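Homework-ish question, so no full write-ups if that breaks the rules, but can someone show me the predicted structure for this set?
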Amino acid sequence: MSEDRSYPAEVSGPFPTPPHDFVDDEGRDIVVRIADDDREDLVAMYEAFDPEDRAQGIPPVGERSIRRWLDRVFEDECLNVIAWHGGEAVGHSMLVPDDEDAYELAIFVLGSHQSAGIGTELLQTLLGHGKEQEIDRVWLTVERWNEPAIGLYQKVGFEIRNTESFELEMAIRIADSE
Amino acid sequence: MEILLGVGGSEHSRRALEETIERVQETGDELTVAIFSSEEVETTLTDIEADIRDTLEEVDVEAEVRRIRGHPGGELVQLADEEGFDRLVIGGGTRSPLGKVQLGSIAEFVVLNAETPVTLIR
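A: Not a homework solution, just the prediction itself:
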């Protein structure tokens, strides 16, 4: 598809890098870490996921489909970070390479832990990790009606770019491209 | 039921064709296949038509095959609405690198504009 793959001229940041700990708006101790061998914790998180928080078919429904999707976003060159509340995975954000040297981003926070600032910290920490790994351009799609998500992305530095697609596309530059 | 299937030579179209044939075999619905070329696919109309006729012959399903030119979405919708088809079937919907469903422009146009009920196969 001939989409407009333009990115903001300005570089956003600085961003925290993992491990990054903070206290959320509800007073809970949260830490964001690079995902290691945490697949089972993520499966548990996505099985508990509220169907209305799904976006364009992900996370998929059902354990088998969840595992298949996780296999894909944990392939080589993908970056994954997890927000932990004690031993429970409560948020997951990922960067998956496209075929134009940029990365697609997605983020999911468990319903019980939404609206407490975790999404912002998780997103920023993933971008910090991405920059460490020499990623410079990141994009995402979001439903046009999802104003809270759009607001979060804008706060972090994403800009809306014009496309004719069903969903809104947003992009950010986190390093100067060489 | 009279079914209009839009096929454009993409992999999604191919799957829509196969699923529609299966369905027609079960129900005995009357099938018309409208073929179009799109920017996303290099296959010519002649190749698409030959492929469809071969496939139909293999499974012994009869269908009228018509070519549409111009804006595929617009022409499909007009054909379906004006000629009183009961259902318009199209393939569509790709996946982003991390697995999000994305509608193609033809599928989006058809879903938004057709008066005829639309089945999207993805």
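Now go work out the reasoning yourself. Hint: Chain A touches chain B at residues 1-2, 55-58, 60, 69, 72-73, 94, 96-99, 104-106, 141, 164-167 (CB under 8 Å).
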